[in-house]
Design brief:
The protein has 193 residues and is an alpha/beta fold. It has 9 helices and 6 strands; from the N terminus they run E-H-H-H-E-H-H-E-H-E-H-E-H-E-H. The chain has a 6-stranded parallel beta sheet, sandwiched between helices. The radius of gyration is 15 Å and the shape is globular. The protein starts with a strand and ends with a helix. Belongs to the isochorismatase family.
Length: 193
């Protein structure tokens, strides 16, 4: 089994208190677990992908511009990774196993070269972290399932601004997509790496 982590949209606009489309306290509460898991994943030499929304509020053809306030706008600090994840990324961004994808749509697979990069590396298992559980994480998971990847959702490293949607998505990952839901605790590191 070859593994990859897809870290989805854990940015200032989605997590910071003053973020444009923030998950607020729910997103902030997962920072430590998300960063620890990402750090361990990188240190183990596993492929780590940061799949980050890149929006242009003047794009009249993008449906999200009609659904949400402008967020993760190209060239703004709102697109920077939130908190200590940003420092971890900056420290490791030049590593051969770390990759940044700008994405236009909810799914990290839609309109990107993610599937090609994963298949080139023989990756079969995907670990997902980030926000929003019931939007971008969900759409990435559905596409990954349809492409034949085995899914692992790090339950305490995903969050949403909608608690009902978050809980529904966790159930959907497990019961409909056959994903393994992981809860991180001390001593489990060896199991995943």
């Amino acid at each position: 089994m070859k593994k990859a982590l897809i870290s989805i949209d854990y940015t200032n606009d989605f997590v910071a208190t003053d973020g444009k489309l923030t998950t607020g306290a729910a997103g902030q509460a997962i920072e430590q677990k998300l960063v620890e898991f990402t750090k361990d994943f990188i240190e183990a030499g596993n492929y780590t992908v940061f799949a980050i929304d890149a929006h242009d509020p003047n794009d009249a053809y993008h449906p999200e511009n009609k659904l949400f306030l402008p967020h993760n706008v190209i060239g703004t600090t709102g697109r920077n990774l939130y908190g200590s994840l940003n420092s971890l990324y900056e420290k490791n961004k030049d590593a051969a196993t770390v990759y940044w994808i700008d994405k236009r749509h909810y799914s990290a697979f839609s309109g990107t070269d993610l599937d090609i990069r994963l298949r080139e590396r023989g990756i079969t298992d995907l670990y997902l972290t980030g926000v929003c559980t019931d939007i971008c994480v969900l759409h990435t998971a559905v596409d990954a399932y349809n492409l034949g990847y085995q899914l692992h959702i790090v339950k305490d490293a995903v969050a949403s601004f909608d608690e009902v949607g978050h809980n529904w998505a966790l159930t959907h990952f497990q019961n409909t997509l056959g994903a393994e839901l992981l809860e991180l605790s001390e001593g489990e590191k060896d199991e995943y790496f």
